[in-house]
Design goal:
InterPro entries: Chorismate_lyase_/UTRA_dom_sf (IPR028978). It comes from Dyella koreensis. Keywords: Signal. By secondary structure, the protein is α+β, with helices and mostly antiparallel strands. The protein has a single domain, classed as 3-Layer(aba) Sandwich (Chorismate lyase). 23% of the residues lie in helices and 24% in strands. The protein has a 6-stranded antiparallel beta sheet. Strand 2 and strand 3 form a beta hairpin. The two termini are 37 Å apart. The relative contact order is 0.25.
Length: 226
């Protein structure tokens, strides 16, 4: 089940899929669930209000001490491919025979993968130099095509996981705490957007999936103030 965006941020423990073990202590209790929801909504709002996910995650990484050096870098995942999502050709404004290329990039802070971005782009709407750079380097797509003065049109932003039950904001009873680790899936938030060039033609469809590592705060950061 997917959850519509409300308006708060999130809290949790690392999932089994987390890339790098970090000492975190998200426990399954009502207060932790409320904090988790608040953190997740805060991150979502920050991402939606700034054009660069990389810089937003870098600020998040530094503010929440996710790594010693709060520097987010892009890492190209090679040798992978994914088919176009349903309806993508209509969103890109292309016909059935138009060539589309796929690129996946991870945004990493320290040893933690914070985001995995699937990007389907239309090579015929880019220059030869842009296509060459996208094929051979780790440079983020937005930086490669920045001379096109593109704009971002957000299609959707949704929580993939909610630490609180449906109807919690209308008085639904929170689940009792078990005091066991709070179970969180590998991906907690997803954004879908189309990048449109200054000629009003779409150049790319991007799906950004944010991992549970955005909540991998050290236990000292999570501990309540005495």
């Amino acid at each position: 089940m997917r959850y519509g965006i409300v308006a708060l941020p999130l809290l949790c423990s690392l999932t089994a899929n987390a890339r790098e073990p970090v000492e975190v202590r998200w426990t399954d209790d009502p207060l932790s669930r409320l904090k988790a929801m608040a953190m997740l909504q805060s991150l979502n709002a920050d991402l939606l209000s700034h054009p660069s996910a990389t810089l937003t995650l870098e600020r998040w990484c530094g503010a929440h001490h996710l790594a010693r050096d709060a520097k987010v870098v892009a890492r190209l995942v090679k040798g992978v491919d994914k088919p176009l999502p349903e309806g993508a050709r209509e969103q890109l404004g292309i016909g059935a025979d138009e060539a589309v290329r796929y690129r996946q990039v991870q945004l990493v802070c320290g040893n933690l993968v914070l985001s995995e971005a699937d990007n389907w782009y239309v090579p015929s709407r880019l220059s030869a130099d842009m296509n060459r750079e996208l094929d051979s380097t780790d440079v983020p797509f937005g930086k490669v095509v920045q001379s096109l003065h593109f704009r971002r049109q957000t299609l959707s932003a949704e929580l993939l996981w909610s630490p609180l039950p449906q109807g919690w904001d209308e008085g639904a009873v929170l689940p009792p705490g078990t005091h066991r680790p709070l179970a969180i899936p590998a991906h907690v938030l997803q954004h879908r957007a189309v990048l449109v060039g200054q000629d009003n033609r779409a150049i790319s469809l991007v799906v950004e999936s944010y991992t549970s590592n955005v909540l991998a705060m050290p236990s000292a950061v999570l501990a309540p103030t005495p």
